[in-house]
Amino acid sequence: MFPSSPVTNHPHKSISRHFQPRSFIPLQQNILWKLEKGIVRNVTWHEDGTLVTLGVWGPGDIVGKAFSKIEPYEIECLTKVEVTIVPANEWYPLTEVLLAHLQQAEELMVIRSYKTVEIMLIKLLGWLAKKFGREVENGHLIDLRLTHQDIAEMLNSTRVTITRILTNLEERGLIDRLPLHRIVLKEEQIWHYEI
């Protein structure tokens, strides 16, 4: 159920595991996972099957079931991922990690609180660009390869709505869409977008 590569040992004796996109990281109460490479998201879903994204995490972040009381709960790989295990006996004060989780939850809550999906999407793209983007000639490249369905699930919207808004943003010159679901956020235009 959890496709991954064999466990390998690094010279500093931490255990490393590799996961493919769309696979799930195993959940164990006594283990946290430190992301070395790649991007994951924590998800849950409503009774009707609607998926809800709880957070999006990248290299240096720590994730695990111990941070949540939400049921059901999964950690899905959005890209190829390498993680190392942080066993319970090494959970020395993780104040910074806990603060990062709280701050991200608040940031996503604020993004989802805007009155229109268009504004939520623009705010989400700006947040993703700051957290995971890299500068390119005409803006910030969000190189996460998120599908329109992934974005819809983050904003509790529909794929059709996200596709329509992305097309509109591209036509207005606020973004460029590249192959493999990548987006370039054009800084000059998007940061001055009037809400």
Describe this structure in words.
By secondary structure, the chain is of the alpha+beta class. The protein has 2 domains: 8-90, Jelly Rolls (Sandwich), CATH 2.60.120; 112-190, Orthogonal Bundle (Arc Repressor Mutant, subunit A), CATH 1.10.10. It is 30% helix and 28% strand. The strands form 3 sheets. A 5-stranded antiparallel beta sheet has the order 1-2-8-3-6, with no helix packed on it. The chain has a 4-stranded antiparallel beta sheet with strand order 9-10-12-11. A 3-stranded antiparallel beta sheet has the order 5-4-7. A hairpin with a 5-residue loop joins strand 1 (8-9) and strand 2 (15-19). Helix 3 (148-155) packs across helix 4. The chain starts with 7 loop residues before the first strand and ends in a 5-residue tail after the last helix.
Could you describe the largest sheet, including whether it forms a barrel? 5 strands, antiparallel
Which regions have little confidence, pLDDT < 50, spanning 5+ residues?
1-12
Fill in the CATH topology of the largest domain.
Answer: Jelly Rolls
CATH architecture of the largest domain: Sandwich
Rg calculated over all Cα atoms: 17 Å
- Which homologous superfamily in CATH is the superfamily of the largest domain? Jelly Rolls
**Basic shape:** globular
